[in-house]
User: Which sequence fits this backbone?
């Protein structure tokens, strides 16, 4: 089974233009613009929804043994499947975004949502439940405590806003497989019913430009060969498609698109800190984006616990592999 699932996971690098190097959400938030003045960039960043969370080590589960590096900044990216902003929701997607100045890379480490872990105050259950129990702060704490990381900030996008984000950049190019067509249309019909919208059905397989609704439906598919592992791959495929699309924008289009993207995201970072982060990225000559997934095949088992299908993983191995990837730029390999 590990080999089968691994066949559906493809790692890749995406080259980014020098003036588009800060990526801080599940979709892509580019905030440093060539030729843009500080005042304009600061104004655009002020449109983001900022949510304050505690930054103390104890509240965020950062231990005294957590690795610290001045060259690497880790941010949690959450994608949530909620109908309203106030709804309690599990994090459907969890990614550790690492801005690595040492190796000149931005890295995405996808964490499988069904990993069975202890969550402070709630016993052991699937990791994605932390967001529903205690919002982004508890979700960050759960990641830090289980993987010994030092994350202090996050960005969240819900799937309805992701749809708007994709539409704002003119859709994303996706290679749709034949067994995905009907499922994309099914998920779109569900969304359209909630949003009272009409849908444009996907009529065939192959590479095509998907609209926001189509791309979100694609990213939600899990009932095909490869199940949830394939689904996380689809999510990364959508992200990669968005990165590529943003790269293709001309300098004249970019400010307008950023203006549309930023209000659709939620973050714990202030505009000033985002500007500092953007300046850091620009000064590091980062040109590469890389991605991988945890747990690695061969280091997990599928187990039914309390009526839930969970991933029981080798946490020691997974933590070691994640740290080597983030801090030493060594990609994990399957058994």
Assistant:
């Amino acid at each position: 089974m590990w080999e089968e699932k691994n066949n559906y996971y493809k790692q890749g690098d995406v080259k980014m233009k020098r003036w588009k190097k800060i990526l801080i959400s599940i979709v892509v938030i580019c905030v440093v613009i060539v030729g843009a003045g500080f005042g304009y960039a600061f104004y655009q960043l002020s449109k983001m929804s900022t949510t304050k969370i505690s930054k103390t080590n104890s509240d965020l589960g950062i231990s005294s043994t957590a690795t610290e590096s001045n060259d690497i900044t880790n941010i949690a990216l959450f994608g949530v499947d909620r109908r309203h902003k106030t709804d309690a929701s599990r994090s459907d997607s969890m990614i550790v975004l690492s801005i690595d100045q040492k190796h000149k890379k931005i890295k995405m480490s996808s964490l499988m949502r069904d990993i069975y872990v202890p969550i402070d105050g709630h016993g052991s259950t699937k990791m994605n439940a932390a967001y529903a129990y205690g919002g982004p702060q508890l979700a960050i704490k759960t990641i830090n405590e289980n993987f010994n990381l030092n994350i202090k900030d996050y960005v969240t996008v819900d799937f309805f806003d992701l749809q708007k984000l994709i539409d704002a950049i003119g859709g994303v190019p996706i290679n749709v497989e034949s067994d995905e067509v009907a499922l994309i249309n099914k998920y779109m019909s569900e969304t359209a019913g909630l949003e009272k919208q009409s849908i444009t059905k996907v009529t065939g397989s192959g590479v095509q430009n998907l609209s926001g609704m189509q791309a979100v439906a694609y990213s939600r598919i899990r009932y095909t060969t490869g199940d949830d592992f394939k689904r996380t791959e689809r999510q990364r495929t959508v992200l990669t498609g968005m990165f590529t699309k943003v790269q293709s924008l001309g300098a004249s289009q970019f400010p307008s698109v950023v203006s549309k993207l930023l209000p659709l995201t939620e973050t714990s970072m202030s505009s000033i800190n985002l500007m500092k982060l953007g300046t850091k990225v620009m000064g590091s000559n980062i040109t590469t984006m890389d991605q991988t997934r945890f747990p690695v095949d061969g280091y997990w088992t599928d187990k039914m616990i309390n009526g839930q299908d969970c991933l029981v993983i080798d946490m020691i191995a997974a933590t070691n592999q994640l740290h080597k990837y983030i801090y030493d730029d060594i990609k994990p390999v399957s058994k």
Confidence is low (pLDDT under 50) at residues 1-38. Residues 116 and 125 are 5 Å apart (CA to CA). The chain is about 35% helix and 20% strand. The radius of gyration is 19 Å.
